[in-house]
Specification:
Length: about 120
């Protein structure tokens, strides 16, 4: 039995995208958007296409996460159709993953003031 259950898979010719809605079983509270995108890309063999996570929602009382994704052929077309905030969140998530844990940003590293001798 697969962890991913497809509830809806529609091609939208008007917006030139594919819209996928699915449930991730047993991953409530532990699934991140980039991990969900990787899982969807592997399941549908979407290498080289732009997969945008639109919504991940935990269901109350069940260990199920419902997710909605848009799949575009062209990144330029995706940026025309979707809000810039969505791409900003994706970039922020990618930056958080790329940064190793325990490493602090350069702005957070502040040296203690040195004592002056009299």
């Amino acid at each position: 039995m697969s962890m991913i259950e497809i509830t809806r898979d529609v091609k939208n010719p008007l917006l030139s995208r594919r819209e996928i809605t699915c449930n991730f079983k047993g991953l409530s509270g532990r699934l991140k958007k980039l991990e969900a995108v990787d899982m969807i890309s592997k399941k549908f063999n979407l290498e080289g296409k732009i997969v945008i996570p639109i919504l991940l929602k935990n269901e109350t009382g069940r260990p199920v996460v419902s997710g909605s994704f848009y799949v575009y052929e062209d990144e330029k077309l995706a940026k025309e159709h979707l809000k810039a905030a969505i791409f900003a969140r994706i970039e922020k998530a990618k930056g958080a993953v790329a940064k190793p844990e325990g490493a602090e940003s350069s702005a957070a590293q502040v040296e203690a003031p040195k004592e002056e001798s009299k």
